Amino acid sequence: DVKVTQSSRYLVKRTGEKVFLECVQDMDHENMFWYRQDPGLGLRLIYFSYDVKMKEKGDIPEGYSVSREKKERFSLILESASTNQTSMYLCASRDTSYEQYFGPGTRLTVT
Amino acid sequence: RKEVEQDPGPFNVPEGATVAFNCTYSNSASQSFFWYRQDCRKEPKLLMSVYSSGNEDGRFTAQLNRASQYISLLIRDSKLSDSATYLCAVKNTGGFKTIFGAGTRLFVKA
Asked: Which pLDDT score is estimated for B68?
């Protein structure tokens, strides 16, 4: 079974803090994604990566950056957390059949 | 218009009922189609891919209608445990992203 893990299930940070969310997959997938999910808005793509050191902006990249130094690891960085970044963050990896596998999510609260 | 649209529901059905959801997509170049299930406060999980000829997995049947640009999911003999949000997803030819619908909520009641 594909396994995608995320570093934290719940996180509480203060406004202005730098926040790191880490995601690791164990299936050697090239494609990885970061989404946020908010009630009524569905899944929104923040960034994706199609290979090591390669990254592309998704639909809502403002206020975020990413890092992919190793194939199995894709990190999301909130440079200066703000209250409107309170959300559920979901990482996913995708296989060659385009099936996506999600991590358990990180519920981030910014106060 | 959104690229992928779903009726948000909720669909409230009794146990044993048959229920069907549709999902429309706007890009005729779409090539790959999926249904995901998401339980409350959990991550989406792949339920099934949707093949051109339609496919079935137990009580679940997925169909693709390219002419009308929609996919469907039929659940027969609904169980209480089928209560969840069902997301459709579409991958376009030549594009990198998978586009997700906002989901349809299903409640199955005893």
From this structure: 94
